[in-house]
Amino acid sequence: MAEKGAFDPMAAWSQFVTKWEQEVNDFSAKISASKEFGSTMNQASTMSRAVQQSFSEQMEKVLKAMNLPSQGQVSDLSDRLLAVEEKLDRLAIAVSDLKGDTREAAAPVRRTRQPPPATDTGETPPATGRP
Fold first, then answer.
1. What is the pTM of this model?
2. Are the C-beta atoms of 105 and 96 separated by less than 8 Å?
3. Domain boundaries along the sequence of the chain
4. In the chain, which ranges are continuous DSSP H helix?
5. What is the pLDDT of residues 54-87, one digit of tens each?
6. How far is CA 90 from CA 71, 76, 94, 98, 99, in A?
């Protein structure tokens, strides 16, 4: 059995981490309390935003030169495509209502890769000409 005075590496590690964390927090508090730190962080944020905007503009020019869509253009196209699909769904429902169809207009098609069922004689029905 372990004695009371035995070295516990987990307790020592825990104490080290706690002390280190406290010292880092104290140091960070001292630095962030100064006005210089605030102005420096503001300048860094402004520079970062300017660099990001410049990079975005340059990337858009490169994509345009390569005849490729930008992320914004793809997003806009996706939104437009969704709007068209919604309109088609509404039209399909309206047409089925006009026809008096009782079944759902946009029923999903069930697709399987199973062969057609065998007939009573055990033969498979002839192919329909579709692959």
1. 0.42
2. yes
3. 31-67, 69-107
4. 9-32, 35-65, 71-99
5. 999 999 999 999 999 988 899 999 999 999 999 9
6. 29, 21, 6, 12, 14
